[in-house]
Structure formats: structure tokens, C-alpha cells
Fold this protein.
Amino acid sequence: MSLALRPDMSVAVLTGAGISADSGLATFRDSGGLWEQHDVTQVATPEGFLRDPDLVWRFYSHRRRQAMAADPNAAHRALASLERFLESRGRFTLITQNVDGLHQRGGARNVLEVHGSLFRTRCANPACPRSKTAWQDEELHLDGAPRCGECGGLLRPAVVWFGEHLDPEVLFAAEQAVKRCDLFLVVGTSGVVWPVAGLILVARDQGARSVLVNLEPPENHRYFDEVHLGRAAEVLPSLLALP
Ligand code: BV8
């Protein structure tokens, strides 16, 4: 069964860790997930970073290494095909909570990484000019937190931790894409992390058709017009079959 896609449609997509599960990457809240193995307050908050920056860098370096070793799966590729199908007459925006870079490696181009990226680093010292712009970094910092060449302060992963604001420009672009889309497709997310969890309400308010693809029904599944349960790598290719 497909979504009857037309080349002039405006499509906004939101993905979470579930779309990368079929590439072998752990999700957060499933059994055996990252938040079962790690205390989120120790590894995904600014306070945790200040308390033990070496621990945080080990956590993110392990995820960097796993993400580099992973391959995009059929779900990532199906979304990239949809983007190409829409590129001349339609609109496509891929909003991802994932920081693993697999959408881009799977061919997607217009990607909004609302929670940042595993592969970007910046200075943690707000007074340092190198805290304002992140740079590409694939180094594994397993033996201690790296230091800034400019100010000598700690470097940090350029991801958004709990209690930190998302980049306002990125969030605005995501909200605008959802506000003007015909179809809002959500894949592989428990839908519990705000403000991104609120995007489904934006889609419903403006009358978009909302479709969820998830392994299990998340808390917010009743907000969606359609729910397709299953593995994204199995469901998406047929759901996004192009005419
Ligand atoms: C903010 C870092 C304003 C990067 C992440 C108290 C103080 C401060 C803020 C709050 C507070 N209380 C609440 C908040 C807001 C908070 C929040 O929402 N908390 C929740 C948990 C209650 N949000 C924030 O703090 C945000 N900032 O609000 O700023 C502010 C500022 C100061 C003070 C007040 C407000 C920042 C949120 C970003 C946090 N950073 N990660 C990283 O390490 O990755 S969030 C983390 O969760 C990841 O980014 C992840 O992407 C995200 C969402 O998780 P999911 O992707 O959905 O993954 P999950 O495991 O949960 O679900 C996977 C799903 O896939 C499951 O449903 C499963 O069934 C499905 N699945 C599994 N396999 C498959 C599959 N589906 C399909 N196919 C499969 N094969």
C-alpha cells in the first residue's frame, strides 16, 4: 500500500532513532536502549558534561564509532528517493532528531538536524568565538576531553542536550516546513522529546495528512491520521513507492 505520492506535493518528514535501528544503532527508550545503559543526566545534560566531561566524550565517541561503522538502510534510501522525486515541482524537508548522519550518507540533502550531530564539535566556553560555530570532527576522544586551541577550554559534542535550547533558526525552518506541508510523515520516534514532539500538533492544526511509521504505537499515536506498525526498513520502501 503506498501513499499516492504526487511530484507537486509538499512533504515534511520527522525521524527518530527508530529509523536507524535497522542499521544496527541503539535507540534511546527501547529495552536495551541507550537510556537503559547510561544515566541520561550524566551523559546528555550540560550539568553532566561539567561534572565529568571525559565520561561524556567516551559516550559520544563510542556512538561516533558505531555510527561510522553503520550503513544507511532501505528506509533512509527510500526517503532520499522521495526527495529526488519531489525536487522539481514539490517540496521536501527532512527533520531528524538523529545525530548519526545516516540520512545524509543515504542520499538525503535537505536535512534539518534539530538535535545537532555526532560529527560536529565546538568549544564549550561561551566566551570563546569557537563556541559559536561547530566544525566537522570524526576523532574518537576516548582518553579525555579535548581542549580548545583558541581558549584552552573544554571542547564539547555539538549536540543539543536536555535543558538546552535548539538552534532557533533550525527549529523555525522545521516548524515552517510542517506548517506548509500536505503530508507529515513521522518515522521511528517515541514522540516524547519537546519541542520536536509538538510538530504533530502543528501538522494537525493546518490540516496536513499525518502518517506514522513505527515499530510499536508510541504514546502520541492517536494524533495521526494513519499508523503503519513495523520496521521502517520494511514498511517505508513500499509505503513510499513512487508512481
Ligand atoms: C528544550 C541529545 C527549552 C543528542 C537529545 C526540564 C528542564 C528542561 C527541559 C525540560 C524539562 N522537562 C522537559 C523538558 C523538555 C525536554 C524534554 O522534552 N524532555 C522529555 C524527555 C520529557 N526537552 C529539552 O530539554 C529540549 N530543550 O526544551 O529547551 C528549555 C530550556 C531550558 C529549560 C526549559 C526548557 C532539548 C531536547 C533534546 C535533548 N537531546 N539527545 C543525542 O545524544 O542524541 S534527545 C534524544 O531523544 C535524542 O536526540 C533522540 O533523538 C530523542 C528522541 O528519541 P527518539 O528518537 O524518539 O528515540 P526513542 O528511543 O525514544 O524512540 C525510538 C522509537 O522508534 C520507539 O518508538 C520504537 O518503537 C521505534 N522503533 C524502534 N525500532 C524501530 C522503530 N520504528 C521503526 N522501525 C524500527 N526498526
In short: The chain has two domains: 1-25+72-115+166-243, 26-69+116-159. The pocket of BV8 is lined by residues 16-18, 21-22, 27-30, 33, 44, 97-99, 115, 159-165, 188-190, 192-195, 214-216, 218, 231-232 (CB under 6 Å). DSSP finds ten helices and nine strands in the chain. The radius of gyration is 18 Å.
